[in-house]
Amino acid sequence: MSATVRGYEATTDRSRGWLRYLYRKATTPDNWDKDGQPHPHWDGVSGEPRRSWHRFDLQDSSHAVSVMADITPAWREVYGTILDELVARFTGYWAAKDWLDQIGDDPRREQYPEEWYETLIPATLRGKYDVPGWTANGVEPWGFQMDPIGADGNLFYKGFFLINLGLHLYVTGDEKWNKPFEVARGGDGPYSWTHSSIAEFLANQWAGRPEGCHCENTKIWPL
After folding, report:
1. pLDDT at site 210
2. What pLDDT was estimated at residue 59?
3. Domain range for residue 191?
4. Domain assignment of residue 135, yes or no
């Protein structure tokens, strides 16, 4: 339960400990460009095969920040700094590394762990089907689309990125990310986008595909 001071809500000891950790984590310098490496405290292991990418740690780390900013608005500078650092990392190559590196069909199709075949692969397609999480950039009919935002697929990158951009604007009121910035630095790009242009692009994708956009090529997520 949250304590109250003079009628105002307060954060808990646990949430303040998490906030201190997240602030330290977000402000520790590292390099998410292609020639760099995320700091080891960013999780790129958990949730294989679908979530074992560093950007999921960026996304999951952001969920409570806007809620806490509503509870303790005097700390918005701290929350804004955290969200700005998360957004900045989303622009790096490593945030979209699966889309940029997983080209064509997965060569490991016939060597997946048995539990993947049991839970993630249709029985009739064993050995002929990419596991969810393999993005398959370059497969037909889409071909190579190296802009991780402008591609037909890769919803789970640009959708989460848009959430982080929205949280930053909500908490800070700062339109800094609505000025052109580069994504996927060090690859075939960089590619230039803004907060608004990403939102418009995704809105058009959803309007053109009422059944849903896809994350991995060939796999549509209808939610």
Report:
1. 81
2. 93
3. 9-208
4. yes
What is the Cα–Cα distance from 22 to 60, expressed in whole angstroms? Answer: 11
Residue 3, in any domain of the structure: no
CB 122 within 8 A of CB 153: no
In a domain, 217, yes or no: no
How far apart CA 205 and CA 142 sit, in angstroms, is: 14
76-90 helix and 13-27 helix, angle to the nearest 10 degrees: 40
| Dihedral of alpha carbons 189, 192, 194, 199, sign | negative
pLDDT value, residue 4: 52
pLDDT over 70, % of the chain:
95
Which one-letter amino acid corresponds to residue 117?
A: Y
Number of domains present in the structure of the chain: 1
- Contact 30/40 with Cβ under 8 angstroms? no
Q: Which residues of the chain have pLDDT under 50?
A: 1-3
